[in-house]
Amino acid sequence: MRAVVFRPPREKDQGSDRMIIRNYLDDIKEKTKDMSVKEKVAYVITYYWYHILIIVSIIALIFFTVRFYLFGNVRPEFTCVVADQAMDEETAEQIAGKFADMAGLDPEHVEIDPDYLFSYGDV
Questions:
Q1: Of 26, 70, 86, 99, whose CB has the highest number of CB atoms within 10 Å?
Q2: 3 state DSSP class of 102
Q3: What value does the mean pLDDT take over residues 72-99?
């Protein structure tokens, strides 16, 4: 039979994410302690611009990914295709708005597409 030994949880080592961020912040505070606010901002932008760029890029990527999966790609409730008829986008929007009012639908979910053309070749 094997004995069970209880070991207390290990303390986080110096390589943990929290310690890395703390080291960056402490380093900035130490190097900018005798500077004015304007000089501190210039120092951070000069030496840590790529850190800021990476963080902003990651936040934007997360934001747009969540926005796309939660609110993107909404299918229309009604789609109308106008074939072989010259119509501009403004007229199509007016038709979509009037149809949405009559049908009791949200105008954002009604789509009128006037860009379809059929070609019969040489006939």
A1: 99
A2: helix
A3: 79
